[in-house]
Automatic annotation (TrEMBL):
EC nos: 3.4.19.12
This protein's UniProt keywords: Coiled coil, Hydrolase, Protease, Thiol protease, Ubl conjugation pathway
Identification of the protein by name: ubiquitinyl hydrolase 1
EC class: hydrolase
Region annotated Disordered, chain positions: 476-511
Coiled coil: 824-858
Ligase in keyword set: no
Protein family (similarity comment): Belongs to the peptidase C19 family.
Reaction catalyzed: Thiol-dependent hydrolysis of ester, thioester, amide, peptide and isopeptide bonds formed by the C-terminal Gly of ubiquitin (a 76-residue protein attached to proteins as an intracellular targeting signal)
USP domain: residues covered: 189-534
Pfam families: MATH_2, UCH, USP7_C2, USP7_ICP0_bdg
């Protein structure tokens, strides 16, 4: 910022310069007192007055329930003692401990006092104890509390007027594991980890503790209609406000949702610096055009000056670039100043690496980087992770690297600054934050050390915030090595032998010689450092009070905070409350026929007005007053029923609350709590009641007696295929079913004389059981109906004479002709039998016709035409129907299409329904794949034809029910396809380049490019058949060419198939099956002494400019010479060209004449190939053929290096005059395998790096993106 500009925010003036920058102290004072736990709420006493002591006959007597320390208690006394005759037994009981989760059970110390009523406080008798109540120990006290003789002694004064008084004093002890209050202890709160968001939590804490940044976020414009889950500015504002004023750890879910992240993103760890850049870029974009537009640049932006100047001529060039953070080397640097020295180190461009200056040609030059302007907040990323080219993997640099409490970048007379830098600005920095990574390249954990006030260090480790010593933030995060018993910070699992030069004192009791001392690598070390310039500290670290927040935003955030605190208080006191859920007939009528078909009501679908949150010590009579006020039902009109789970897993309201229960406390009704749930969520108390009130409202109030039962009625209409609840009624147990038909017809709005059929709902799982009720049965004794049972009824449907018709059909064979050879008597007998059979047949057919006529004359004959004419059929259909989503296998994330099917449907039925929806004439051209319930994606293996017998089996995975199937369209019937072996073959041309094919889809004639050839042949076919089929597809270019088939994995050839090998056991899912034309010089048989070798590409670092230039020049010279001779000459490279690669000892950036051993194993990539070599052929000659085969430019190929690789020794780079045949073992040239020797080509991998299956998060992790 220039001197003439006005600051965007004015610093908060305190009047006391010494405390102006101590925001942390101010916040501790503001919040600690507000959040201090009131210890009085954890203590209390209760006195139990027991009258008529001598009249107590029961062995145990309980007091009423009372509340102390947010827990319910009661006293238990045994007047005759418990297992101790002559003793008074007294216990303190926790009535909810038997079913409450462990974290809600109390731990307390208590004092039981038998009060001396003659001299209270002087002659009392007391005992003390403490206990942790649990499900197995619900009471605790003294079985031998006091001798009964002393208790009943009138002179002692414990019993006066047959009254005994027992007092208990309780102090509840909080479990710090659940009640640690970081706001109280430190003044700050942490952030919750969503799974793997520790890196984000560390960054957010650091940014929050830059008050200037926080204030800028508060002033980002938002609207009233914005939601935190979709607006990044509002989500960050809300999160910062909660960090400033919340009493408990803050969730980041709204923020990650505003990023557009899914749950999977929350479980994927990223780099903290990458997130910092992406987040700040997104905020910069959101701040444009607002009053906070340049805040991020003002805080973090600095400028470097990249310069280049020639030594011998007057030529200079420079370029000014901005930066938001700096990446500093760790490897090879002892401290932070070493890193800055390396960052600004001058590089000489001379020799082969001269600079081409415009107008002067090639010149020796110096180039480097200096700082033109340093930012107020300096963000430094330490390069702890580097790529190891030798091992083809990322490694973490755990070397010791020191940094300091203060950083002076003006040192050395400003050697880091450019000549035009403003020297009036003092670049003295103070350490503000240390972001730490603990772990290795395959995983780890981030946390941060921050000192908001510039004095006190705090550790922010997700939800935990603690005050720490300064050495924890500095010395212990230097990295390096540590002895056992030293710093507890992370250690690697393997010890390292240490010599005498770094001797330290051994631990007491473990005398070791210096060479025997063990060291452990500390894997917990600093990863990112944040320094704030001392001169800018008062401005950018000034406290942010509420008046620094936009008023409209402050009002919204305060309202959200109040709501959050209300919910938190409810959660903390949840064990003191009970949820009483009430269902009425109106609720039953609303659900039945829409979301509920069996039973009566689903309590989870009730409106919020039906749920009452009441304290457990509330009397039920007081609760009825709340119901009267909220639902408008007078107290005397409220009649409550409790639900009972029956053996068939149904729930029915079977009994009314008794008068003594309606006068008790809510907690005393715990035996009626929710049935069927044993989770901690429901373990405390959840009462579900049925409130019986007149319904419809005009219905008369029913007054039941003991001879009546309460039945619930549903009416089914087959024509409308609808089921609805029509009410409940009390009916005499002695009634026959037919006697209540008029009542049922009236409830359904039918004429009272309508013929009806009645069914009882019996069970829903595992199969629907709806039983018909005989109209002549009595309700209770014969039909065995009781209160709470459900009767489904409908208009009577006539029964078709199916049995009679079947009998008539079967009897048609009774009339037979007599054989010609039969005697007369026998013939007469046979004729008589035939006449009788004919008469029976005629009578039976007449009976069938009469029954059919009767059915047609039935008043409800039209119901026979309905799809589901009867209740059992309809409810069986309701239970069996499934809404199934079908998605294309190639597009598993698309919405797809939906079909309603039955879970009993066969494979053929499902395929036919899908084919009809897609307009396919033949369902066998479909192949289905099941859904993976864990990955939410298709399973790897598709279903075979008719593999699953029903839709229910198709929608099951590992015991989980799903509603999704995937389909693919085939170009042949699936049964035919399954008789064939399908191979996915990658075809490569003579240059080893991959060549795909175009296919035409049979179902839509669409031509699509696919990357592989799919070859289908009978399972007993051989490799020769595969090659013949493939040759027929390749066109004229490869007509008549000999082909071969290879097995490739991880860019290595593992097998060359014989044409006679069968394909049945070939696995194209694991191996890459590759086909290629055989070059003429590799056709078998090979000339004597010739052999085929494997040639692989090995990954090499990018060569430096000098090596590349020298190699290119040499290549050009050699190519010119080769052109003059009319023959290709191998490229040559100066032996001392320098460069990287895998060289140990001598070597260069390109192929070298000398040999050298590689530093480690070589990682393969790209497409391997086979190559014929002659017995006397040198490497130089082979390289010329390789360059021609691959079509690589000479300049680029000159940087490639060749190595002989064997599993028995380290890779060895070869010279051009090396004879290759002498290097390779005399193995069968036709059957070389990957484990044998091969020729490696080390060069830069310019292809797209794709993540391997074992890739870790530091190698090819998914990049951080903020979508919204």
């Amino acid at each position: 910022m220039s001197m003439g500009e006005q600051p965007l925010f004015e610093a908060v003036q305190d009047g006391n310069d010494e405390t102006k920058d101590m925001e942390g102290v101010v916040e501790i004072q503001d919040t600690a007192s507000a959040n201090k736990v009131d210890d009085k709420s954890l203590r209390g006493e209760y006195t139990w007055v027991i009258e008529d002591w001598s009249q107590i006959k029961e062995p145990k007597k309980y007091s009423e329930n009372f509340e102390i320390g947010t827990h319910l208690w009661r006293l238990l006394v045994c007047p005759q003692g418990m297992n101790a005759p002559g003793q008074l037994s007294v216990f303190l009981d926790s009535p909810e401990a038997a079913f409450a989760p462990a974290n809600l059970n109390p731990t307390a110390s208590f004092k039981l006092t038998i009060i001396n009523q003659k001299t209270p406080g002087q002659g009392d008798y007391w005992k003390e104890s403490s206990h942790k109540w649990s499900q197995t120990e619900t009471d605790w006290g003294f079985s031998q509390c006091m001798l009964l003789a002393e208790l009943h002694d009138p002179e002692r004064g414990f019993i006066v007027n047959d009254t005994l008084k027992i007092k208990v004093e309780i102090t509840v002890q909080r479990d710090e594991r659940y009640y640690y209050d970081s706001r109280k202890e430190t003044g700050y709160v942490g952030l919750k980890n969503q799974g793997a968001t520790c890196y984000m939590n560390s960054l957010l804490q650091y940014l929050y503790h830059l008050p200037y940044f926080r204030k800028a976020v508060y002033h980002m414009p938002t609207s009233e209609n914005d939601e935190p889950t979709t607006s990044l500015p509002l989500a960050l504002q809300s999160l910062f406000y909660k960090l400033q004023y919340s009493r408990t750890p803050v969730s980041t879910k709204d923020l990650t949702k505003s990023f557009g992240w899914s749950t999977m993103d929350a479980f994927m760890q990223h780099d903290v610096q990458e997130l910092n850049r992406v987040l700040c870029e997104k905020l910069e974009e959101k701040m444009k055009g607002t009053r906070v537009e340049r805040v991020i640049n003002e805080l973090f932006e600095g400028h470097t000056l990249n310069y280049l100047e020639c030594v011998a001529v007057d030529y200079k060039s420079s370029r000014r670039e901005s930066f938001m953070d700096l990446q500093l080397d760790v490897k090879g640097c002892s401290d932070i100043y070493d890193s800055f020295d390396r960052y600004t180190q001058v590089e000489m461009m001379d020799g082969e690496n001269q600079y081409k200056a415009e107008g002067y040609g090639l010149q020796d030059a110096r180039k480097g980087v200096l700082f033109d302007q340093l930012p107020p907040v300096l963000q430094l990323q330490l390069k702890r992770f580097e790529y190891d080219f030798a091992r083809d993997t990322m490694v973490k640099i755990n070397d010791r690297y020191e940094f300091y409490d203060e950083l002076d970048l003006d040192r050395g007379d400003g050697k880091y600054l450019s000549p035009q830098a403003d020297r009036s600005v003092r670049n003295q920095y103070k350490l503000h934050s240390v972001l730490v990574h603990s772990g290795g390249v395959h995983g780890g954990h981030y946390y941060a050390y921050i000192r908001p006030d510039g004095k006190t260090w705090l550790k922010f480790d997700d939800t935990a915030v603690t005050i720490e010593d300064g050495s924890k933030a500095l010395e212990e995060q230097f990295g390096g090595e540590d002895e056992p018993g030293g710093s507890p910070a992370g250690r690697l699992q393997g010890p390292v032998q240490e010599g005498e030069q770094q001797q330290q004192q051994p631990l007491a009791g473990t005398p070791l010689m210096p060479k025997q001392r063990l060291k452990f690598t500390k894997f917990s070390n600093a990863y990112m450092l944040v320094y704030v310039r001392l001169s800018d500290w008062p401005r950018y670290m000034a406290p942010v009070a509420k008046d620094g927040i936009a008023p409209y935003l402050l009002e919204r955030l305060e309202a959200e905070q109040r709501e959050k605190e209300r919910r938190q208080k409810e959660k903390q006191e949840a064990h003191l409350y009970c949820h009483v859920r009430i269902a009425t007939d109106a609720d039953i009528a609303q659900q039945v026929g829409s979301s509920q078909w069996f039973d009566l009501v689903d309590y989870d679908q009730l409106p919020p007005s039906r749920t009452f949150r009441v304290r457990k010590l509330t009397r039920f009579s007081d609760f009825k007053q709340q119901v009267a006020a909220q639902l408008g039902v007078p107290e005397d009109a409220q009649r409550y029923w409790v639900w009972q789970q029956r053996q068939n897993k149904t729930y029915r309201p079977t009994s009314r609350l008794k008068p003594d229960e309606e006068s008790a406390h809510i907690v005393d009704l715990r035996e009626h709590r929710e049935m069927g749930h044993t989770t901690a969520k429901h373990a405390l108390m959840d009462l579900r009641l049925y409130l019986e009130i007149p319904w419809p409202p005009e219905s008369p109030v029913q007054t039941p007696n003991r001879q009546e039962i309460n039945l619930f009625f549903k009416y089914y209409d087959p024509q409308a295929e609808s089921l609805k609840y029509v009410g409940h009624r009390y009916v005499l147990k002695s009634y026959k079913v037919c006697e209540i038909f008029p009542l049922m017809a009236k409830l359904a709005g039918l004429p009272l004389d309508t013929p009806l059929q009645a069914y009882e709902e019996v069970k829903w799982e595992p199969t629907v059981m709806i039983c018909a009720i005989d109209p002549q049965f009595t309700l209770h004794q014969e039909a065995q109906l009781e209160s709470g049972d459900i009767i489904c009824f409908q208009k009577a449907v006539p029964d078709l004479p199916q049995a009679a018709a079947a009998a008539a059909d079967d009897s048609s064979g009774l009339i037979k002709a007599a054989p010609e050879s039969m005697d007369l008597d026998e013939e007469q007998q046979q004729q008589q039998t035939a006449q009788q059979a004919a008469q029976q047949q005629q009578d039976l057919q007449q009976q069938v016709q009469q029954q059919l006529a009767a059915a047609q004359n039935h008043p409800h004959a039209e119901l026979l035409q309905c799809t589901f004419p009867r209740v059992p059929e309809f409810l069986s259909y309701i239970r069996s129907r499934r809404q199934v989503t079908f998605r294309r296998l190639e597009e598993p994330k698309e919405p797809g299409l939906q079909l309603e099917l039955l879970r009993e449907d066969s494979y053929d039925t499902v395929a036919a329904a899908l084919a009809a929806k897609l307009g396919l004439p033949d369902p066998t051209h479909l192949r289905l794949t099941q859904h993976n319930a864990y990955s939410n994606m298709p399973q790897r293996t598709p279903m075979k034809f008719r593999e699953k017998s029903s839709l229910q089996g198709m929608l099951q995975h590992a015991g989980h029910a799903t509603d999704t199937l995937y389909y693919e369209l085939l170009d042949m019937p699936l049964p035919q396809l399954e008789q064939l072996k399908s191979l996915r073959v990658h075809f490569h041309n003579d240059k080893t380049e991959f060549v795909g094919e175009h296919v035409v889809h049979f179902h839509n004639d669409k031509t699509e490019f696919v990357g592989e050839h799919v070859v289908r042949l009978p399972r007993d076919a051989c490799v020769g058949d595969v090659l013949a089929e493939l040759g027929s597809r390749l066109g004229e270019e490869y007509k008549g060419r000999q082909l071969r088939l290879l097995e490739v994995y991880h860019s290595k050839i593992y097998k060359v198939f014989e044409p006679s090998e069968e394909i049945a056991n070939m696995d194209a899912n694991y191996w890459l099956i590759r086909a290629e034309p055989v070059p003429p010089d590799e056709a078998v048989p090979l000339p004597p002494g010739h052999r085929l070798i494997h040639v692989y590409h090995n990954r090499s670092p990018k060569p430096d400019a000098a090596a590349a230039a020298a190699a290119a020049a040499a290549a050009a010279n050699n190519n010119d010479a080769a052109a003059a001779d009319g023959a290709a000459a191998p490229p040559a490279t100066p032996a001392n060209s320098g460069g990287g690669g895998f060289v140990s000892g001598s070597g260069g950036g390109g192929f070298v004449s000398g040999s050298g051993a590689a530093a480690g194993p070589l990682a393969t990539f790209g497409d391997p190939f086979l190559l014929r070599i002659a017995p006397d052929e040198t490497l130089g000659q082979v390289k010329a053929r390789i360059q021609q085969k691959l079509g690589v430019a000479a300049a680029e190929f000159a940087t490639w290096r060749a190595a002989f690789v064997s599993i028995r020794a380290a890779p060895e780079f070869l010279g051009d005059d090396e004879v290759l045949a002498s290097r390779f073992a005399a193995a069968d040239s036709q059957h070389a395998v990957a484990e044998s020797n091969y020729l490696g080509l080390a060069h830069e991998d310019k292809g797209v790096r794709r993540p391997a299956s074992s890739a870790n998060r530091y190698t090819y992790e998914r990049p951080v993106k903020i979508y919204n």
